[in-house]
Amino acid sequence: MTGPGYPWYGVVTGDGLEQGDVLDSLPVFLPPDDLEDWNEGSAAFFSTEERNVVVMTQSCDLVSGREKVSEVLFCPVWSRSRYAAGEFLGTPKGLEEARRGTLPGIHLLAACALPGLERDVGIVDFRQTYALPVGFVRKRAAAAGPRRRLLPPYREHMAQAFARYFMRVGLPTDIPPFK
To answer: What is the domain range of residue 110?
Structure first.
């Protein structure tokens, strides 16, 4: 799924972080369903779950020793197999719509054929975000061994899709369809 001269992924090791880095099995914190009942003085217990994620924070904000952020922003990367055949993203039509970019909250990543890092097509879900402290993420990245990094122009394509998702404007009254 890559064209000549334009590989989708590179392999990285160590604690360096860039936008487009894919971290497998990173623990994320999930708030309880009853969090809306929280008020000052309340306690809330968050669960954790390991998820495959992609770094959404811009690379320039993650330069080691010159970080401009204290937390790294992620979105989950789901495998195609997560979606049952009856679900929209479990169908060829749903995947094609996502590939074309007509589903604003979803972005597809190509399958990866790098030795030892083989993965099926990835489904990035912009509708879910997580943040973790930079130091924690660096330690996990260093311990992960070889991992995937989305390369240009695919990294910028994903970032642009993420920006489009968050900058959408809903109009109170739209122009009627032309028939």
So the answer is: 9-31+45-166
